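Materials and Methods. Structural model of Flavin reductase family protein. The 166-residue sequence of Flavin reductase family protein from Coprobacter tertius was retrieved and submitted for structure prediction as follows.
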Amino acid sequence: MEKINVTDLDENFFETIGKEWMLVTAGTKEKFNTMTASWGGIGFLWNKPVVFVFIRPERYTYEFIEANQDFTLSFLGEENKGIHKICGSKSGRDTDKIKETGLIPRITERGNIIFEQSRLTLECRKLYYDDLKKTNFIETDIPGKWYNGAGYHRMYVAEIVNILKK
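The predicted structure was written out as tokens:
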């Protein structure tokens, strides 16, 4: 994979995140977890290129994001939907997702986990977080539809510090 500049990104992230999905990965080479996500975005905030992702506190990956400054977003391509299905439906607490999916982890210069199968990876450094709250929803039907009995997501805003592309 080669490093590219943020100005060289030519992705339609509405399609990339919403339809292709992504792996959110955090931890160290000794212990990490990854999960599938299809909610998030990319933009420009505080004069920095940023991503924003949403993780429920019940997810095992949440513990790793909380404990580490960095995380990665890996885009594997539509041909790897099977990997996404496993990483989105099974918990790393109970399953060795790396073994089950055949993902091949690699370590970046910053010590973050990326995957050989990834066609595009964003290496991100946390800048801000906030918890979604029922009282802040203007469209009041959203909590009942998406959070019925489940925890509200924590939103992370993170600076894109490296972009790696095949």
